Amino acid sequence: MTLTRKKSIQSLLDQASHSTLKRTLTASSLIALGIGAVIGAGLFVRTAAASAEAAGASVVLSFVIAATGCAFAGLCYAEFSAMIPIAGSAYTYAYATMGEFVAWVIGWALVLEYALGAATLSIAWSEYLNNLLGGRIPYQWCHSPMEISPTTGAHGIINGPALLILALLSLVLIKGTQESATLNSVIVGIKVSIVLLIVALGWQFINPTNYHPFLVPATVPGHEAFFAHGWGGVLKGAGIVFFAYIGFDAVSTAAQEARNPARDMPIGILGSLAICTVLYVVFGHVLTGICNWKEFAIAGKEASVAYAIQNYMPGYHWLAILVTVAILAGFSSVMLVMLLGQSRVFYSMSNDGLLPKLFSDIHPKFRTPYKSNILLFFFVGAFGAFIPGSLAGDLTSIGTLFAFTLVCVGVWILRKKEPTRERPFRTPLVPLVPILGMIVCGAMIISLDTRTQVTAFGWMLIGLVVFFSYSQSHSKLNVPEVTAGVGVQ
Q: Could you tell me the fold of the domain covering 9-138+167-486?
């Protein structure tokens, strides 16, 4: 019974009403937060990667499929975040619908999305900064000790730039949510402007022959052929570009800091998702029209956009430099939102006793969970400074898809258990929308490679050890007087 005990919705609302977090975010701030989390390196890197590996020019359909899965999940997130305006996102929703054990599992899975995602991005940020500076940072000071230069044989010591950007963003988060939102809005303006500039200038360089064939026929027999090209390739491409959508759900982690969460949370979640999807589809169409998708496999995935500009848009080499600036800005805003989301998830888990109290300690002046931000800096910084980016990068998508699936399940369960509860926003066509969300997200999980799936399973095993050795015995639902106060079910 301890694994399935739940917190009542009313207890969560009471908890939110006594929150010491500062409510400063408006609907526009939440939309900018979502765009800041979504439009980043994924747009500039994963578009070409999905096109080269699976989808070809039909990568725009991959974006649509990934967006569809996100939309189903987003509608479910919107209902929960408006009904339960409390920090913690999918973790909190699972606690109210599926019980403590599932809540822990989903909270642990979100570490893959937020903390490891931020670490991976910090490493990539370091690489692009050094590229922008012409390689002036010595290899030893911008690479992990586990890496060796293929040209000079030099060993890495520490990834200094990765550690620096994480430290700066952590300080901004400690200072306050409003300051973080303001910085994020400025960065969003920069990178969206550059995306629109590439679309506007690149449209005239589209070569229609690059769109033929739109759906590349599979040529390899067997199971792998299905995910090589054609509609199977489009589905695999959706799993690849899904990385570019990761983060819109981070809007829900800020529910406890929204001024009017019942109205603003659905606007922030669905509005940011809609805007980003349009930008992604148009950008993918233009990029694969400028340069044939086959070249992206050879040109290199990280510099693919710059490659297309330099080779197929004569006179616009300066735009390639702006792309690097946009990528750096994109990395920064995504890391900011990821670190914000992770600290708020830990804040909720700590309030429930599943993590030590220091994760929910609030700064007396800034009213932010500053100790959590500091500890997260050391944890994420350790990955960013000393671990190669490839070690953690592939886990981000699967952790997010898992969270999306459980949120869809949660909405369906709560509609069955509490159909009359007030819902400021209602997910339409329940149970159809949650079921479709589970199917699409599940299909994308299956399309990911086996190594990622096995590694994620190992991560979850570590989480189970933590849960049974610490969290279960320290849960506040163990205390009779607390249990009575929170409405355990």
A: Amino acid/polyamine transporter I (1.20.1740)
